[in-house]
Design a protein that fits this description.
- With 97 residues, this protein is mainly α.
- The chain has one domain.
- The chain has 2 helices and no strands.
């Protein structure tokens, strides 16, 4: 007769263990899903940044190797002119109301 209480006790322990592992594994599955989503976001960010880095390297190379690009940038961004040049600024007509 001592085997029945042992079987009942083991059954209760087994049921408790199954319940616990199910609860923990479902939380773990949610965490894994969240981490995978985070990894995908980071990989997309990395790809975008790698593209930006390539574009900036190309622009830097052009600035160093092509004087006309450097001159254009200096003229447009900094407003520099050559010694014998004149700049004319034309006023825009006022908007009619």
């Amino acid at each position: 007769m001592q085997i029945k209480p042992l079987i009942v006790g083991l059954s209760i322990l087994l049921a408790g263990w199954v319940t616990y592992t199910t609860a923990v594994s479902s939380r773990s599955a949610a965490q894994i899903r969240d981490l995978r989503n985070e990894v995908q976001k980071r990989e997309a960010d990395n790809a975008r940044l790698e593209t930006e880095i390539r574009e900036l390297k190309t622009r830097l190379r052009d600035l160093n190797e092509r004087p006309e690009i450097k001159e254009k940038l200096i003229r447009e961004d900094l407003g520099y002119i050559k010694k014998d040049e004149l700049i004319f600024h034309f006023a825009q007509p006022a908007a009619q109301k």
